[in-house]
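Exercise 7. Given the encoded structure of a 175-residue chain, write a plausible sequence.
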């Protein structure tokens, strides 16, 4: 799989996080503001990292997809405040917190210590990436289910949902 171009994924993720943060603030959706804050703090760490850069960029790409799926759910879904969504949002926040902590520790280590802890840092990043993929898969499933249901309602009842009009512009995450 090709590595995303850093000159694209970094600003795209910044825009997505900032927009979602504004939407979450306006709609008072719990956890999403925290998710955006974490994403915005991870971006400069990834930009400045020299160790495991490719892996960090792939993780950032998944964070971007997570933010896009959350935006689509927040725009049109009344189920954004359902208990299962809160659980998924909380899990997302925990995962982003782990990623931020891992990158922070990596940044604070000296060159020699980083060499000795290279396998430990790589294992932590792999674990964080797996957790992020899991939560992204859960939220993508919820979004796709909502999207299919909304499409069904549009066809049968003539209702129109914002999500079905913007779905073509939202990247489908690799899961």
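Solution.
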């Amino acid at each position: 799989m090709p590595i995303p171009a850093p000159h694209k994924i970094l600003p795209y993720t910044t825009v997505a996080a900032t927009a979602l943060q504004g939407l979450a603030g306006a709609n008072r959706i719990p956890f999403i503001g925290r998710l955006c804050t974490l994403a915005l703090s991870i971006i400069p760490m990834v930009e400045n990292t020299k160790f495991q850069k490719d892996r960090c960029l792939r993780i950032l790409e998944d964070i971007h997809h997570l933010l896009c799926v959350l935006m689509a759910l927040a725009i049109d879904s009344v189920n954004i405040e359902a208990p299962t969504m809160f659980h998924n949002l909380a899990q997302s926040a925990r995962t982003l917190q782990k990623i931020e902590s891992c990158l922070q520790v990596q940044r604070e280590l000296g060159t020699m210590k980083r060499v000795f802890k290279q396998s430990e840092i790589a294992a932590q990043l792999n674990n964080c990436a797996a957790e992020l993929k899991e939560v992204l898969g859960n939220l993508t499933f919820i979004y796709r289910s909502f999207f299919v249901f909304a499409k069904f309602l549009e066809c049968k009842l003539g209702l129109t949902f914002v999500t079905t009009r913007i779905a073509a512009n939202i990247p489908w995450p690799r899961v």
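Remark. Confidence is low (pLDDT under 50) at residues 163-175. Students should compare their own answers with the one above.
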